Each structure stands twice: as C-alpha cells, then as structure tokens.
Amino acid sequence: xxxxxxxxxxxxxxxxxxxxxxxxxxxxxxxxxxxxxxxxxxxxxxxxxxxxxxxxxxxxxxxxxxxxxxxxxxxxxxxxxxxxxxxxxxxxxxxxxxxxxxxxxxxxxxxxxxxxxxxxxxxxxxxxxxxxxxxxxxxxxxxxxxxx
Length: 148
Ligand SMILES: [Zn+2]
Known about the structure:
The chain has 148 residues and is an alpha+beta fold. It is built from three helices and nine strands, in the order αβαββαββββββ. It has two domains: 96 residues, Alpha-Beta Plaits (2-Layer Sandwich); 45 residues, SH3 type barrels. Helices cover 19% and strands 39% of the residues. It has a five-stranded antiparallel beta sheet with strand order 2-3-1-4-5, covered by helices on one side. The chain has a four-stranded antiparallel beta sheet with strand order 6-7-8-9, with no helix packed on it. α2 packs antiparallel against α3. It is elongated, with a radius of gyration of 17 Å. It starts with a helix and ends with a strand. The structure holds zinc ion. The site of zinc ion has 8 residues, from loops.
C-alpha cells in the first residue's frame, strides 16, 4: 500500500501555480488538452492513473493558467465528471466539480451538414443539452440531435 502511494506521487509532479484537471475519464486527457488550446503553457499529462473513485483516470496539470467559464464547458463536454483544482504556491486554492450546462454556445459544430449554422458565419452554433449521460445535444437552429 505504502509502495503504491509512493509510486503515485512520483508520477504526478506538483505545479507551483496553475490548474489541475483531475478525474478526467481515462484516455481523454489529450482531447481536453487539445480543446483548451494551451500549447503555450507548460503542461503535465498523466494517463491511466489508478483511482479509487473511477479505477483509472487521467490528470492534466497546466502551469500558469486559470480556466474561464467557457473553458469549463469545453472540459465538461469531454469529461463531465472532472474536477478542476486551482493551485497557487503549490497549495490548493479552489476545487470545482465540473458540470455540463443546459446550453452550449460555440465550441462545436452542428452535425447536420445543411444546418444554417454551418453555412452562415454570423450564426454562432448553439445547443441544448438534452441528456448528460450519454451526452446528447440538440441544435438550436435545425433541432438535429447528436451524441458526443
Ligand atoms: Zn443544426
């Protein structure tokens, strides 16, 4: 037991200031990394970390970055049960359980190729979340429904 705790510590290095996205669905950390567009920040990604809550999880640590509301929604679309932790001087300042909002603007495109939101640049894609597990969205313009 002591051995495994030690191993976990070695794998997951601490950051001084920034954000830790914990409890990311195993295998999804790279998708979260991509959608957040954080190429300019130093990041640590841990994949398939043993977790008591979900067996295996991914962890993403981003230095010098605080998530904005729309970025929380980005993460929620990929991993709805993730936890976002704000770190300052190596200490946990805030913990946030992510929650999928009822409506999502931007971020995604409608999967219906003839939808107006795919043809007019002034139309911002907008979706209602009609199911959270699995995530099913409904387009505000053409009412097309699709699974994430
Ligand atoms: Zn549509």
